[in-house]
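Supplementary Methods. Inverse-folding protocol.

Structures were first reduced to a discrete structure-token string of length 109. This string, shown here, constituted the complete conditioning input.
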């Protein structure tokens, strides 16, 4: 049986939330997201999402030297990204109520 893609619409928001804490390399973002989801996203997914968030103006990157001395992109959230996050507070709260209800009902089965 195939599982529904419940988290499909929330991973971008999760990336933005992680970037409110620190500027991060793509690999670090991928690791944090995988840890939060308790699973591994398909290879390249994070970079596709980062590119999409960048094209929408929600994140920017700067080139920095990493620990190996090579240039790497470090991502930061923009003011537009912060505004986008703020606009999702109420919808996410509403989804939480529905999810709590669904989990309670499924637990009764």
């Amino acid at each position: 049986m195939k599982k529904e893609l419940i988290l499909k619409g929330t991973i971008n928001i999760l990336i933005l939330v992680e970037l409110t804490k620190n500027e991060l390399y793509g690999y670090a973002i991928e690791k944090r997201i995988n840890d939060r989801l308790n699973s591994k996203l398909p290879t390249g997914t994070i970079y596709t999402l980062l590119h999409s968030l960048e094209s929408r103006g929600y994140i920017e990157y700067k080139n920095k030297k990493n620990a190996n001395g090579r240039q790497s992109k470090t991502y930061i959230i923009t003011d537009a990204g912060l505004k986008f996050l703020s606009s999702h507070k109420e919808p996410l709260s509403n989804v939480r109520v529905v999810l709590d209800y669904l989990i309670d009902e499924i637990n009764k089965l």
